[in-house]
Design a protein that fits this description.
Helices cover 39% and strands 18% of the residues. By secondary structure, it is of the alpha/beta class. A seven-stranded mixed β-sheet has the order 3-2-1-4-6-5-7.
Length: 240
Amino acid sequence: MRLLSVIIPAYNEERTLGALLEKILAVPMDAKRFHLEIIVVDDGSTDHTAAIASGYSQVSCMRQRHQGKGSAVQYGVKGCSGDYLLVQDADLEYDPGDYGPLLEALPATGEAAVYGSRTLGQIRDTGRGVFPGKHPGQGIGPWAANVLLSIWIFILYGRWISDPLTAYKLYPARLVRELNVQSAGFEADHEMTAKLIRRRVPIIEVPIHYAPRSVAEGKKIRAVDGLIALWTLLKYRLTD
């Protein structure tokens, strides 16, 4: 059986981390022919995030000073031993019950990345409507930013990705290490996307579930991160 490493970058997520870990541990991985390795990377939290993670014998907790999500993910990559990596946000926006569809989408031969698309999930569950792929609880701004990034990627790389801002991305571990991601913040996801496309690695999208949270509930991504994403995608189109 293959090993899936779930890397959870966490910064002050004591409110949701325990419930998330319970959900992950309840996923029937044997049926997917995968073993599970769970790594929480505490990104310099000032609350009880690390203590909660350390309370689970099935979870490895790594700690670093606060450097950002991308840095935390890369630190987790160094400490994991899986054949595949899945980055899992520490909140409850994404449902670990979708691990199955993500793993099932992996090709029988060759390498590919699998992106969980909230956009396709909403179209599947609620239809297209006026704003295709928008969750009823999602603001117009984040939805529009995602559409803009899809268009930007298509302009730069000739590739349409319905949900480039998704936090559910499943990668072959070998590729992640080889691509040597440099970005420290949220833009690390876009650096990975750019490098995968330039290497002609297939990116498979599957619909997933999504329960958006607000800034008041702890959501950390901001409007400026959208501008950084645009620049990051342009940067890695022009440079190696």
